[in-house]
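So, can you check these tokens?
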Amino acid sequence: MAEPVENGSDCAALDASWLRAHPFPMPSNEVDKNERGRVLVIGGGLQVPGGIRLTAEAALRAGAGKVRIATVASAVIPIGTMFPEAAMLSLPEGPTGEIDVKADMLTPHLARCDAVVVGPAMTCEHHASRLMGAVLDAMPDSRAGSGMKAGDCGLVIDASALMTLGDHAVRLRARAAPCVITPHMGEMAALLQCDVKDIERDRVAAARQAAARFHAVVVLKGAATLVAEPDGKCFVYSGGDVGLATGGSGDVLAGIVGALLSRGSPALEGALWAVWAHGAAGQHCAETTGPVGYLARELLVAIPRIMASPPDA
């Protein structure tokens, strides 16, 4: 049964007709892997070292040409060996096993990517907030003389990086293009500094409030997922299933968003396509494996075929 969306009668449906009217950018046969989109995924830690791999593989499965994983030094060799398609960037780790990095370590790598995903598989709010600050310091559109227009590098913020995002709200609002944030209910409550029950009373209003406060396209995850943009426009997707409520599922979604931004989709369209593809992959797994019990990594193989097939009417 779909989760109620209170006061959401003015939300547009994310459905087949919208998707057909807003195709995502497709590469020509002549492009190389750099032109297909370059994604930098920064996150992970010793508590969940493999989660970052889900985000990175999702980005490749959703069509990015190149992916680099930036994670704690002790996890680089195991992940790189398990996932040879991705380049690796070894980052310092603090005593708790979380990323502990300064902006100058990220600057050259952010200058060579089209989208960055920050926060997947991190578990410490403090370190995630420091990482978020370092990313904003290092992003090309934050530096004078970078040669890039503000907002050229797509930005996706996920997981623990959301929990103290209020510390960075002013800088996010200064970006020309909105970032994409992907909170669940608990993370949304942290973003708006309120109780989860307050979010539950009016999820649409909460999504719109966060979108305006952070100049972001907000993907508020749930059985009925809401996607809101800063001007107040809101969409609802009701095609998810309970099986998607599993560890690593959100990491996959963040990677799909990152890939679509790297391929040239605007933030709203990239987020909406990602929500649909993620939900459709869940439906595929529910049909082939069972409504519950499939793993987040099983979503990955379904993504290319789903995105290559036009949605049914």
Q: What stands out?
A: Residues 1-7, 142-151 have pLDDT under 50 and may be disordered. The two ends are 22 Å apart (CA to CA). The chain is about 40% helix and 15% strand. The CA atoms of residues 49 and 75 lie 6 Å apart.
